[in-house]
Predict the structure.
Amino acid sequence: MTAPDREDGVPWRNFYGRRHGKKLRKGQKDLLATRLEALAPKGVTWEENPERRPIDLRALFPNAREVWLEIGFGGGEHMLSLAAQHPDVGIIGCEAFINGVAMLLSGIERSGVTNLAIHPGDARDLLDVLPPHSLGQVFLLYPDPWPKKRHHKRRFVNPENIDPLARAMTPGAMLRVATDIGDYARHTLEVLERNQNFEWTAEFCRDWRAPWPGWPSTRYEVKALAAGRAPYYLSFRRKC
Ligand SMILES: C[S@@+](CC[C@H](N)C(=O)[O-])C[C@H]1O[C@@H](n2cnc3c(N)ncnc32)[C@H](O)[C@@H]1O
């Protein structure tokens, strides 16, 4: 768990992505003010939980048969679709970009799904406090590519994040990574191959060329396909 001290004593992490985009509409601001708190898991921020005690997922999703995680959900289209397809699963999404969080809240209002939770911040803060062996599936879809070599350490896929993810996943759980950047796919395979807790499940080319069953696509995938880039769909099983 890396969290250098800030002057006021509250630890923090460098985050290099955007937190805000264009000005939020009044309806979006209202949703953030009135709906977000009830959907946000308690005990994730350092202020709420300085000892980093594991949070209570049973209290968050009392009737769920499994809990899944989506990291960097963007506008939340994929999460909404998963939630509707799997009403018996509780899904936690993390997104640091507040405009994306507002978009997901609008989607939740429209669709009426009740099996979602939102951490509006850095996914690494949630990883710290997830109970061991608590996640049945994890999605990391079109992560920020950070193409320059000197920025590769900013990529979400790195041992510092993959180790706590492995700890939080149940044996047999799947980690799904989609990217349209060949170098990110190569980097992901290298990092995951070096981690003893995961095995890549692909046997044939079609296994990483075609999405997994139930794939509802994402905003970034639509952009990638429109630009003529072919996505890679990488699935890793958490070993027992
Ligand atoms: C390229 S976008 C992809 C969005 C979405 N998954 C899609 O496919 O449309 C990557 C997203 O990950 C978010 N992100 C990056 N690092 C994150 C982190 N540590 N915690 C939470 N969100 C993060 C960014 O804010 C951004 O919205």
